[in-house]
Amino acid sequence: DSSGPGIIAGPLDVYGLTHLHDDTTVSGSVHLLSALDLNGAATIGGNIYLPATTANSGGIYIEGNRTLHAYSDYSFFAGKNAGNFTSNGCGNTGFGDSALTNVASGILNVAVGHSALHDLTNGDRNTALGNGALENLVDGSNNTAIGDNALVNAF
């Protein structure tokens, strides 16, 4: 537990909850085997390596909401509650709050915008660009919707 400015040199293995406050500099490798609480800004001068995304690891949360993760093969999600941790689909990409939130076994879908393809569960090869685009599509395939609420209730 570091409570003031300081420098930690060399490799650092962290096994319990660690709190870093103010201006603490760590030079060298840091291996976190538990939680890290950063109270303030963090500057990373190198790479961040996360494990493969599972329901319990490999994701980034903001205010308790999953925000950035790569759950499911070849898939990537960015945005508050985008994607989920139960899908067995692959090749899905969701950007925006609640984009592709309910995807279960769909493959090769792209959703960009708040709630784009929100209700999709099993459809394949859909593209939704825009707030609410194809939001209520549940089981369709090979659809393209571009624009605010484009085809929101078409299916």
Mean pLDDT over the residues: 85
Amino-to-carboxy terminus distance: 55 Å
Query: What is the helix/strand order?
Result: EEEEEEEEEEEEE
Shape: elongated
Let me know the largest β-sheet: 7 strands, mixed
Describe this structure in words.
This protein is mostly beta strands and 155 residues long. The protein is built from no helices and 13 strands. The strands form four sheets. Strands 7-8-9-10-11-12-13 form a seven-stranded mixed β-sheet, with no helix packed on it. It is elongated and about 60 Å long. The N and C termini lie far apart (55 Å). The model has no long low-confidence stretch (mean pLDDT 85).
What is the topological layout?
Layout: E1 6-9, E2 12-14, E3 18-21, E4 24-27, E5 30-32, E6 36-39, E7 60-62, E8 65-69, E9 76-78, E10 93-95, E11 110-112, E12 127-129, E13 144-146
Parallel strand pairs: 1-4, 2-5, 3-6, 9-10, 10-11, 11-12, 12-13
Antiparallel strand pairs: 7-8, 8-9
